[in-house]
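hey can u run this one w/ fe (ii) ion bound, need the structure tokens asap thx
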Amino acid sequence: MPARNDGAAADYAEKIPNNVSLHEDRRLQRALESWQPNFLNWWQTMGPTLPTQDVYLRTAINVGRDGWAQFGHVAMPEYRWGIFLAERDPGRKVGFGEHKGEPVWDKVPGEYRAELQRLIVIQGDTEPASVEQQRNLGATAPSLYDLRNLFQVNVEEGRHLWAMVYLLHAYFGREGREEAEELLHRNSGSLDSPRILGAFNEETPDWLSFFMFTYFTDRDGKYQLGTLKESAFDPLSRTCEFMLKEEAHHMMVGTTGVDRVVQRTVEVMREHDTDDVAGLGAMPLTTIQKYLNFHYSVSLDLFGGETSTNVANYYTAGLKGRWMEDRRKDDHKLTSDSIMVDALSEDARTGEQSIGQTEVSALVGLNTDLRREYISDCQGGVKRWNRILEEGGAKQRLKLPHIAFNRQVGAFAGIEATPDGETLSADEWQRRQGEWLPTDVDKTYVRSLMQPVHQRGKIAAWISPPRNGINGQPFDYDYVHLA
Ligand SMILES: [Fe+2]
Ligand SMILES: [Fe+2]
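ok here u go:
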């Protein structure tokens, strides 16, 4: 039985597949159908550059528990990007803030219109940005399995753009339609009109970066979506709930991607009885650590400053909640709670700055709360990679750098610190940052390994094959047919 949503089954025969009864609102349908060619034009000009005939992709066709994904070989420009909201819970109440306990909103309240639109635009901007960042990776894919996963992530980020554009068109009038256009005009790394957030203007030039990005930066997305899923604005909540299901695959790609790189490195270390695997066709652990340092620190910046009155206001208004709001054991209003946040403290006598903490109201410290949830999640990755090192007999370990390391946003933006959290002068940072962040030499070596392996069942020498294929298919399945 198809999952039901607002009384309407998913309409897959429409030009724009959807489960929001789009055909009942001709104006909205026409507006979205006129945005569609612009989206396809963007996909053709800014999306994946490697020519393909078709790719073994999953397509979202429903939101119910009994299967929402259909797998099959699809020509990518014909992918059925659609609009899918999780099922409506008719009794849903606002879970936090000053409206706690009131029924959730089916429309945008006038007093929160600007804030909600801004939140949706910022989320929406990240989705096409990552497709742009990853557009050239197909040319150097280590296997057809990996190539397929890259394209799966790409088409789903495209669908997430659709998800945000639907909200803008359906609920924010002319301004919303203009913002939807802008989402296609800004481009990652563009000098004139860059993407809104810093990490989404960085390059993803190689597959080690791609796996780190899908581990650390897509995971930021998971936490942002998790807060928006709590929103009192029900269509936003339902949209994000379904996006989170797709996001899980992106993080699997990152987690197991780094697993497989580390696995291969430790094998080559053992085979040659050396730690120095550069020149032996594998990724040195020191390079893996530097890439991890970079992607983790720029992803921490995505959570904003340690304190934010805007975010306090979003919470109080019910626009954006906490991660796992309903599992928190407090009053969900936080008006009289406090939280310790990371801060710089200055010695009154010497003027010397040091890394410490300070107490602020819990509402103002919500960014810190979310970032801490994210950090403890990231520890999980490091733990599993270290287990691979241990089982492979290597004595080295990977670790997350200190929260003050390489930060451009928040309390530590103005200082420099080592991955161990020791402060450094700007000069010393200039001199030593190459010990901790990828240097041109590291990047050149990584790029030298990026030779495409596009033959069925084959894989590049710097990465282990995956344990499992996709949707029960073997590793040597014909996941992609190149053009
Ligand atoms: Fe996404
Ligand atoms: Fe993603």
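The CA atoms of residues 227 and 321 lie 5 Å apart. anyway lmk if its weird
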